[in-house]
Amino acid sequence: MRALTELLDHLEHSVSGDDVAIGDLVDEIGPQSFAALMLIFALISTSPASAIPGVTSLVALIEFLLVVQMIAGRHSLWLPDVVLSRRLSRQKLCRGIAWLRTPARYMERFLKPRLKPMTKRPGIYLPLFLILLLTPFMPFMEVIPASGSIASAVIACTAIGLLTRDGVLITLSMPFLAFVPLLVWYFGFSGL
Asked: What are the backbone dihedrals phi and psi of residue 124, each rounded to the nearest 5 degrees, phi first?
């Protein structure tokens, strides 16, 4: 199963010019591909592109809107024009994609469809609600180095589980979805 590297290949070949609009990424991947979009935006915030100020907050907003629409059962993603028109550096995006290839290839060796009830309704509701609880914390994580990337990595694991129908990965990601905000608060803000 090469779902991750194929998605990265598709994304890399679709970007052109000096920068790319969020709307172009959504159009290229397909507005019906909620799990793929969730993964791509989480990976953007996990990659070196997350060093751009505001990227983690933008990804948090997009992930929140994605998950709300998944829970509501929408068939196509809607994002506000102000989000769709935001642009990302093509160079940083491609550097992030290249950085993600090695872990994607490694993970693909272990991914397979299993524990399928966790990959469809109603099983997906719990991890989706945990993402809803996590995303409001992500803008605050921009002040704590790497914490936003950790939160995005956990969301990416959930999205990978949905994309590859691997309910075991989704189940393993749920405790992290629940505890990342608590750990960030404890280690990042409790001493203030």
From this structure: -80, -15
User: Which amino acid, residue 167?
Assistant: G
Q: Write down the pTM of the prediction.
A: 0.80
Cβ atoms of 185 and 140 closer than 8 Å? no
Q: How far apart are CA 139 and CA 100, in angstroms?
A: 23
Q: Indicate the length of the chain as a whole number.
A: 192
Query: What b-and-e string marks burial along 41-63, b requiring 16 or more CB atoms within 10 Å of the CB?
Result: bbbbbbbebbeeeebbbbbbbbb
Runs of H (alpha helix) within the chain: 3-14, 22-29, 34-46, 55-72, 81-84, 90-108, 125-134, 138-141, 147-164, 167-184
Asked whether residue 1 carries a pLDDT value surpassing 60, the answer given is no
Q: Are 126 and 27 in contact (CB under 8 A)?
A: no
Q: What is the largest CA-CA distance in the chain?
A: 46
Rounded to an integer, what is the distance from CA 45 to the centroid of its chain?
7
Beta bridge partners of 87: 21
DSSP per-residue string spanning 84-135: HT-EEEHHHHHHHHHHHHHHHHHHHTT---BSGGGGSTTTTHHHHHHHHHHG
Work out the average pLDDT over 1-28.
Answer: 77
Closest by CA to 180, choosing from 80, 56, 83, 62, is 56
Percent of the chain with pLDDT over 90: 14
